[in-house]
Every structure is written in structure tokens, then in C-alpha cells.
Amino acid sequence: MAQQGVRKRPDALTVLTLLVAEAPPARIESLLAEAACGGAPEAETAALERAVRLGLDICAQRRGRQQREAGLSALLDTARDLLVPDTLDGVLKAVTRRSRLLLGADMAYVSFPGPEDGLSYIRASDGHTSTLNVGLQLTGGSGLGHAAVANLAPVWTPDYLDDNRIQHSTDIDEVVRTEGLRAIMAVPLSYGPHPFGALYVADRNVRHYTPEEISTANLLGELAGLAVQRTLVLDDAKATVQTLREEHGRTTESLRELSEHRRIHHELIERALTDCELHGLAEAVSRNLGGALRIHAADGTVLTTTGRMPETGPAAAEVHAAKRPVHTADGLWAAPVTAGGEILGTLVFRPEDLPAAGIDELLHLAAQAVAVQLLRTGDTTVAQGRAHGELLEDLLTSAQRPPQQLEERARRLGINLATPHVVVVVRPEARAVGRACALATGLAQRLNGLRVGHGGNAVLLLPGTDAGATARAVLNELAPLLSEPVTVAAAGPVADAASVFHCHQEALRCLEAMIALDATGRSASPRELGFLGVLLADNRDVRSFVDSVIGPVLEYDRQRFTDLGRTLDAYFETGASPTRAAQKLHVHPNTVARRLERIAELLGPDWQDPGQALEVQLALRLSRVRDLLIKDGPSAGVGQGT
Q1: What's the CA gap between 47 and 447, in Å, rounded?
Q2: Widest CA span of the chain, in angstroms?
Q3: Which residues of 339-369 are buried (b: 16+ CB within 10 A; e: fewer)?
Q4: What would the pLDDT profile of 180-226 be if each residue is shown by its tens digit?
């Protein structure tokens, strides 16, 4: 007779049942304890552990979707709020209020250029507790806003007053201190490649902004920039129309054009925020602009096409480097699709007839709508690009994270970290940061590598075994497309996740050495810097350095039992005098002369040039010290056969 009240031990079906019931993760995790108390066999416990682990992953994914849906809903409300006001003050009020709500910040404010060059002032604020903020004049070059506008990229700090990287000013620090602010992030307000202000969000506690929060804030800045620009242009148009009515009693076509642009912008944004299909948005763009359209992902994959398009189109790298819609010789138009400095794709347009007036502005608005659509629907190519950047960021900053976890993430993205890779650090001039990052992204995608912006540089992890050759290839790829110098340093190769962190540090040291040596606009690796490379190298590979400089001489001595190495030592110790070297070695000067001729055959005719002679002397000394340490070490004479 079956015992009453005996509960069945939990199994995989129990996990499925709890998932259907949307039970909390803690309830699913408690099944392991129940199984242990029930005395489940080892095989049954292992199967349950796998089921619980998968169930917790599903819960995490469900929670992430819910958070994204909430964020997108808030973003939709924000976009609609920004489309309603017709005055600049109304737009700025909506921007600051929505920024606080969307990012959960304590305070938000906006800075605008002042009447004098190099100066700006706080135009609007939300969440402030003092009267010092609004109207504050910001000195040129100080604070986060100047850096965000100059680089056209987000700038943030977890603790403003304690961050020595920031150029502080007394007035700004006083407001920050009075308001009790700690963490601050600034993103540019821009219309295409032309920034005209900055949006700030701030917290009264130390806060490390996540990549998602930074991307959201930057997208808010772009949407706000469009709304502000629309309002400013509309105000100018209204003033112009009023003047024309007073002087000539007639209106102009510009007002109708502005009204039409506003209508198209509103329709495309509404579709991007509500329509679940990219093709539907593409058809709306084609209909409003009058032509065929093709949308490419960041890696060049065609996402959708409307109308008849040629098979080839403009080079994506050049389009993104321009940061604006460009017109090509074959009659096509191309516009970059970006969000938060991240390349999402390229929009290619072929007009059916003569292009409409202001086609570049319309294409820019269309590209913004496509960016919103791609972010909202979580396009796989966009998601993969983000995953690539997040993986490399973790490889560069999380040296203590389990390497197996990072390598597994890389495998899921099609990257095999067990094969040789080279870390490349690209440092452009400040005015070319955005363009260099865009070009570096395209290069990494083409070579099946990784790229991320880190510490003001573009960092790439590319397949390869020769760091110097890889650095030269990257420089040759980027330099012709940039108007400013770019410096490239590379280190490696590495063949595991844990080594990427240290290899990046080595490449950074090489880059700093190049800049200190006034070698900007060039490329190099630690090995190519000679003995400087030994000092810079993270693993101090002395053996490789010695072998590369005087290896042929040492090998000749080992094979023929000669004394070329001792002759070199004596030659340099006596001030490069063959006669005094012969006296020190107790041999005839002709013997030293013959040995020096043999050395020239082995090392090359330029071995006595000042630069190479310095490396030869350093290699001799390192070899001598290494041999003495090995000879006098605790294991000398013991276990020689091992």
C-alpha cells in the first residue's frame, strides 16, 4: 500500500511547471535543496541541476525582455513628448524631465552656446535644489559638456569632484558641491555632425553608468537635438515669414518645406516606435522621399530593400567617416545609421526623379528613424555588434573574470580566442575620434575581430601573429581616410582570454612611448622598439631580445667553440679599440680584426652604427647576467639531465 503524504522528488518537469506558472527564480532554485533532502540519486540530482540552471537562464531572459519593454515604452513616451512642444523652452523642459525619469537620475540640465565664442550657459534644469544652476556661464574647455561636444561622444564620471581627469572650474565645482552631485554624464545635443549643446544627467550618489544607460542617454541627446533644431528652424521660418508678409505681403516655399519635413519626421518616428517590421518603415521612407531604398546592417548584410536598386553601393566606411548623408557620382545617396556613437548600418537611397529639396536632411531623419527601429526590435546584427563590444570591454577591464566564461562567450559570437590574436590600440587626434572609431568598426567586422571604444582610444582584437605587421595594416587602412594623424600600437600575439588584458596594457605602454618619442602618426609594436620594447613588454621576454640582436654570434660560438662574444665584450669595454681589446684578450690584434670581420658577417655591416651598437651592448650585458644567474643558481650542477 502506497504511503500517504510522500511528496514526489522534483525533476525537470517540475522546473517546466514553475516556468509556466512564472514562479520567481528563488522558487526554482529551491528545488535543488528539496532534491537533496529527498535523497535523490547523483544522476537524478545532476539532471535536475541542469534543468534548474536552464530555468534560471530563461527567467533572466524574461526579466531582460520585461526591462527592455519598459525602457522602450518610456522611450516612446519621450519621443512623443518631444514632438509636441513648439517652443524651445517647452522642448528643453520635456528633455530634462524625461531624461530624469528614463534614467532614474536626480537631476538633468541642458547647456547652450553663449553669445561669446568658447562660452556656454545652463539654459534649462530639472531636479535642482538651488538657484545657482540655471543661467550659470560655463568657461570654455572645462567640465564634461565641453568634452562631449568636442568629441561628439558621451562623457561620464562616477564621482565628479574626485575625478582628476576632468578640467575643473571654480564656478562649476561650486554648483556641483551645492547640489550635492556625485555622478554626472554629458551627451552632445547634435543635428547630424554639428553639435550645439549638451544634455547632462546627474546623481547625488556615486554611480557607474552601464553601457545601456550611456547608449540610452546618447539616443535621448540625438532625439532632443532633432527636436531643438526643428524648433529653432521653425522659429526662424516663422520670423522670416512674418518679415516677408510685412514687406511683400506674401509667404515663401520654405515654410511649406519645413512643414513637410516635420510631417515626414513625425510619421517615420511613429512607425519606428510602433511598427514591428523594418520593411514597413523602409516602404514609408521610399514613399515619402520618392525612390528606392536599401538598408544594410553594420556588417554590410542587406536587411531589406524597396524598389529597384543597383547591386553595388557606396562604401560604408566612407559614409560613416563623413557622419552625414553623402551624394555619390552614380546618383545614389547614402546615410549612416548610428545611435550613441555605435554603427548600426547604412541607408542607401536612389531617387526616382530629381531629388527633393533638402534631401540630405530628409535622409538624416530617415536614418534616425531606422536607428530607433533597429534598437527597438533588437535586430540580430545590431545585438551581435553590441555583444562584440561588450565582450572586448570585459576582456580589457575584467582580468579576474573566469577565462573559460569569456572564451565561451566568444565562441557563441564566432570568435575563437584559442587562435592567435593581436591587440591593437588606435589613438586619433581629438577631432577625428568619431571618424576613426567608425572606420575601425568596419575593419574589425571585415576581419572577424572585435572593436570597442576604451579610454579615449579605439581598441581592436584582430586575428594574427605579427603585431608589427598588424599595426602597419591598420594604420594603412585608416590614415588615408582621416584628415588628422592617427597613431597605432599593437602587441601580441595571445591565444587565450586571460592574456588579452595584459597584452592591452603592453600595447598601451608602447603607444605612450611612441607619443613620448614624438612618433605620432606612426605604427609600432614593443618588439620593433628594440630594447625599449623589452622595458615596455609585460612579460620581459629577454631571451627573444638577446636572440634577435646577437643570436647568430652566440650560436656561432656554441657550434665552433670560438670567442666572438668575449671579443665583442672586450671591444666595447675598451672604447671600440681593436688594439686594446687584443691586449685585454691576450691575443694578437690581427686575431681581433679577423673576429670583428666574422661578427660583421653574422650581424650585418651596420652593427657598429650608434643605434644598433647600443642594442648589441645591452644584449651582451643581459646575456652575461642571465648566464651568471643560471650558473650560480641553487640548481647549478644538480639534475643536469632534466
Answers
A1: 40
A2: 110
A3: bbbbbbbbbbbbeeeebbeebebbbbbbbbb
A4: 999 999 988 877 667 778 889 999 999 998 887 888 888 888 877 77
Least Cα distance to 339 among 442, 187, 483 occurs for 187
What are the backbone angles phi and psi of residue 324, rounded to the nearest 5°?
Answer: -160, 165
CA atoms within 13 A on the CB side of 316: 24
Which one, of 338, 310, 313, lies nearest residue 327 by Cα?
A: 313
For 568-636, what is the HEC assignment?
A: HHHHHHCCCCHHHHHHHHCCCHHHHHHHHHHHHHHHCCCCCCHHHHHHHHHHHHHHHHHHHHHHHCCCC
**Pairwise CA distance, residues 121 & 94, whole Å:** 19
Judge contact between 278 and 303, C-beta under 8 A.
yes
Q: Find where cell 694578437 sits.
A: 588
Residue with grid cell 534649462, as numbered in its chain: 124
**Dist. CA 634–CA 642, nearest whole Å:** 15
Residues paired with 461 in a beta bridge: 423, 450
Which pLDDT tens digit goes with each residue over 284-319?
A: 777 777 788 888 776 666 777 887 777 666 666 666
Q: Please give the model's pTM, rounded to 2 decimal places.
A: 0.39
DSSP E strand boundaries for 225-332: 291-297, 302-306, 326-327
Fold of 88-231: Beta-Lactamase (3.30.450)
CATH annotation of 382-536: 3.30.70
Task: Assign domain 542-632 to its CATH superfamily.
Answer: PucR C-terminal helix-turn-helix domain (1.10.10.2840)
pLDDT tier, 68 (very low <50, low <70, confident <90, very high otherwise): low
Transcribe 484-511 into DSSP letters.
S-EEEEEEEEE-SHHHHHHHHHHHHHHH
Tens digit of each residue's pLDDT (9 = 90 or more) over 257-269: 666 666 776 777 7
Query: CATH says 252-378 is which class?
Result: alpha beta
Contact present, 140 and 180 (Cβ < 8 Å): no
